[in-house]
Amino acid sequence: MLFQRSIDNNPHDQALNPFSYEQCLLLRVKRTTFSARNPPTCSNMPIIPWIGILGVMKPLKKRKNKDKMIFLSVGYSTCHWCHVMERESFENEDIAEIMNELFVNIKVDREERPDVDQVYMSFVTATSGSETTEKSAITCSRKIPTSDATSLKCFSVLNHSWDPQYGGFSRAPKFPQPVNLNLLFFLIADGSDYSDRAIQMIRKTLDSMAEGGIWDHISKGFARYSTDAEWHVPHFEKMLYDQGQLLVSYAQGYSVTKDIKYKRIVEDTIEYAMRDLQHSLSGGFYSGEDADSKIEHGSDEKREGAFCTWTYDEIKSIFKDRPDLFDACSETYDFKDGGNTSSDILAGQNVLRLKRNAKINHDKVISAWNGLMISGLCYSGIALNNSNYIDEAIRTGEFILKYWNADNHDEIIEAEHPISGFIEDYAFVIKSFLDLYDVTFDEKWLNISKELQLSQDRLFWDEIDGGYFSSRSDDSSIIVRMKNSSDGAEPCGNSISVCNCVRLNGYFPEWNPVDKAQKTLEYFSEMLNKHPAVAPEMSRSLLFYDKHISLQIPEITIRKDMLMNVLQIIPLGSPFILKETKDEKFTFCYKGTCQDLGSNDGDALRKLDEYFSL
Question: Transmembrane region positions (predicted)?
Fold first, then answer.
């Protein structure tokens, strides 16, 4: 015994909790796990102190006919996470009820019994969970944080880093960071307490980018980043992954606000991508266009932004017959004799072009980025109620299927010469095919998603600790296999895979892919607890994992127009799993509780609309 502490050992306390007589501080003191003076916890969840393995067998034998497992919790009285687990788990009556039903709950103070802690932590170090035989151990050394706590912590960081003057989440250079916007949109769809602030942050960011130089006001499309904090001077490289992700952002922005300028940005971005990045015959999209371009015809000399920048005199000469148009454009685009950029390279030039040498496009076709573009087209088709965008998404999906190696399903062609796909190739394409299923209900996309997920699991899954490696299991060129957890210019493969597995579980529950989602979240739990803003997309996936909703639609009622009506009622980006069912009724399910919406599609849509209007 390390400490003595006076407590009121009255009969009421003793009846509520056997730990009232315990000398161990962890098992006695209030506000620690399984506290002696916490009637709601202990009356609902009887806990057995550690009394040795033979002693543990006694209560286990009493419950042998119920096939209960032991839940062994090791901690100490000043442990912060013990207190967190107490508040979030053991004091929660719903969780206590589940644990009482499934486990014999045993508590150990590791400061008094370090030998017990060492034995079981050594086992946890060697293994991270497996199937069990009778009386063998099942472990979980990492606790998945609650989705609300994680999202609040992530939101707080984003709110602190947000630029109230120009929008965005950093100083110069400033990147769009759509992954941050995705989380904010999710919080709005979820009816979060900080939805109003999230909308303000989103609108300022989307407005500033659309009005700034990062948006190409002539050829359309977004540059990769701004060299300044004002979104004024772009880095002139344009990447497909930005176009696809920002389509999602502006489509959601239009869906939430009905601001017509967001609709125009969506339309113009798609126009740019199809005109300048799409392979006209195949339907796939090239990876992007170079920041450098030739300074003049017949010259091999290149300069950053040469295609996009003009001197004041060059522009004036173009408008020499229409000074009124020059004055109008000059006011709109801030033409100045000394140039309207601060970059030394671009000194004396204006960011505008009407006709110039051809830009230099990258000729790589990357599966992951095409997946992002498919998702962007699907979101745009829903938000703008434009079936042409969905048709284009289907065409791009068909392109990936055509060039996906038919003889070896482990390979997705990433360039002119086949390159084995990485985790992002699989994750982003699977997500895009699930999005295609949502907008078409064509089971082809669902079945291919499952096939690809099985390949991804075999090639990238960590059987010991959980989570997905970035490189393949058969790649001998990598010294050590790493797992990426940070969401940056693109989301990381693990973040997207969590959501993919939850969605696939809604269609194939017997396969149980949600187990992979859970173990991935467990693996990254420390990061989600301490630094969730490093991975806002994974924080969003945790919310999806915890709060997803299922809507089952009778197959006999499915029509293209009806499906689009459903998609327009559901907040874009909300945690929905749409399922086709042979049942004749529409069914709305959340956390195991289902509501019958009736068999008439009109009535079902009205009830669904009422639900989201609350």
Answer: none
